[in-house]
Amino acid sequence: MNAKKNSDPIPPDYSSVQWVAASLDSQHPADTADELENLSLAEQLEYIREMDVEDASESITEMERHERNLLMSRLSPSFAAAILEAMSPDDAADILEDLDDDVRVRIFKKLEREDAEEISDLLQFDPDSAGGVMNTEILALDQSMNAQQAINLIRERVEETEIPYYAYIVDEYRHLKGVVSLRDLLLSPGRTLLKDLLGDQNLIYVPFDTDKEEVARLISRYNFLALPVVDHEQRLLGMVTVDDVIDIIQDEASEDMQSMVGAGRDETVDSPWTYSLRMRLPWLVMNVLNSAISAFVVHLFEGTIAQMAILAALMPIVANQAGNTGQQALAVMIRQLAMERFNRRKSWVAVLREAKIGTANGLIVGMLVFAGLYVWTRNLGLASVMAVALGLDMLIGAVAGASIPLVLKEIGRDPAQASSIFLTTLTDSLGFFTFLGLAALFLF
Questions:
Q1: Is 10 helix (H, G, I), strand (E, B) or coil?
Q2: Virtual torsion, Cα 34, 40, 43, 48, nearest 10 deg
Q3: pTM of the predicted model, to two decimals?
Q4: Beta 226-230 vs 206-207: how paired, if at all?
């Protein structure tokens, strides 16, 4: 840790813990979070207690979920409440959402009434929705105000807002009427009414129950710094900011990657090993059952393999090529589903596209394998069977890889969830069946 490597002597009026805590205070919260995660829980508790509450709250927000939960659970309820009160309400709600019920209740009792009500309201929203990730610390200005009044109000409230780049204009019932950039507001004559600044806006906003991935897609599409969130009567509730979107995109990308192979969606190297075991074991058991299907297919052709032992040596090539082809299609399709709104027709057209790519790749690879195997064995029949089997199996892999996420989506499941396991089952079992079936039909 940088603080411990400092060769300067510790001032006599500082304890070691105070000196390191002061060093942590001077760092960016994300760097401080990294430093804290490298410490034992006892050391984390010592340093957090010595840090300024505002700095401690920002650093804890940046910590990994499991580390953060453990630390917050061990702090006294009153100190934990003070840290949460220093955070933005959406961050505080996210942290409380992850804590055990008994810990959450103890901390809630220590929160100031206003903070408790605000956080409680946020906890009512689905954490995967716009309401679950929005920030309620926003600039909302009445449309009847003039530009100078609005600027004066913003000056008074600017420290209460997370990202003071937009001013949201509302009516007396808090219905969202438009958005004004602070630049436009500052350049406007002081007596100009806010409602006159709006003009004909193509107002873009999201209801509170919109999936957070859709919110991220919209902010990315329109290059916004923030997106307003409203209720079903178009009353302004809050906003989702671009820094939240970065977190959403990173979280969804890592969750999809881990889900593909059957790991826990929010699992990290700091997760308790028992949690990882609980997340992974069911899928590994399913993988064993799925592998038994492939083993049964091979068993059906035991006699064929016994008559020509080289078939056993060539089988892994068939399985690997089909599997890799399928993984490529799988990755592209999952990315497409994550980046764009689901369009059934477009998605299934994409499967046809992957089928064309699989066919072309299969023909080219098949011809290369045919030439290589014929030169090696001088067996025209074996080389032909291997080439045809590879071509068919790569087509199967491409179609399966593109189709599995869509099938999971159609039945209401996460398109990435263990899709790699299902793909391996199909490519191995169908690949072996195709190869050994062709060998049995044409070589004997």
A1: coil
A2: 40
A3: 0.67
A4: parallel
Q: Strand, helix or coil at 27?
A: coil
Tokens of 140: 């909302």
Residues belonging to the chain: 444
Q: For residue range 239-254, what is the model confidence (pLDDT) as tens digits?
A: 998 888 888 777 777 7
Pairing of strands 166-170, 140-142: parallel
Count of alpha carbons within 13 angstroms of residue 284, beta-carbon side:
8
pLDDT in tens, 388-398: 999 999 999 99
Consecutive H or E run containing 25: helix 16-25
Q: Which residue has the tokens 């699989």?
A: 358
Task: Specify whether the CB–CB gap between 227 and 215 falls below 8 A.
Answer: yes
Give the DSSP H or E segment for 429. helix 419-442
For residues 401 and 420, give the distance between their C-alpha atoms in angstroms, rounded to a whole number. Answer: 8
DSSP string, 262-313: T--TT--TTS-HHHHHHHHHHHHHHHHHHHHHHHHHHHHTHHHHHH-THHHH
Cα dihedral 409, 204, 122, 156 in deg (nearest 10):
160
Contact 354, 331 (CB under 8 A): no
